[in-house]
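Wait, mind explaining this?

_____
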Amino acid sequence: MNKLMNAYRVFDYFKKAGIFLSGVAMFSMIFLITADVISRNVTSKSIPGSYEIVQNYLMSLASFTIIVYAYSSGVMPRISMVVERMPYFLQKVLLLLMLAVELIIAILFVYYTLNYSITGVAEGHAFPAGGILFPIYPFLFLVPMGFMGIVIEIIFIIIKNILSKKQLWITFTKRQSSDEVMDQTYVS
């Protein structure tokens, strides 16, 4: 289990780098959009290509670098109220089955988005912004990288659940508990 924890710590550095990149991209979006609005109001001219740069570069950088963190934090919806009333063995089987389905879906996302990214490189995908063609194909690889991070996260969770004898882990650091059901807030 110590080797697994050490490997996860290394993976955690990549997740933190994704959080940092996402923060830089969001700050850049705020700055560029604000500068564009000020420019339009003061000089009656927009910053050429600002919308396209935000749309094609900064949005993908902000979204797909943080997707692994969002998955690993445990904020994704679950049906823990129903599952927690079942026997432990059945809970574990259902959790592993659900993780296997998520793993298959994430692998399919990686496969198809990687193929699209490779096609984008071969065809030289670009977008016009301010009269200049900007290459988009390097940023296409953020999508398969983000989903590959989810694949790695799911593999860590599956291994931890297989090695764990008495607890179920919904994320690598968060175990399933009945207290969690009571703490959830519901909007009616």
About this structure: The longest strand covers residues 126-129. The helical segments are 2-43, 50-64, 67-72, 80-83, 88-123, 137-140, 142-163, 178-183. The chain has one domain: 2-183.
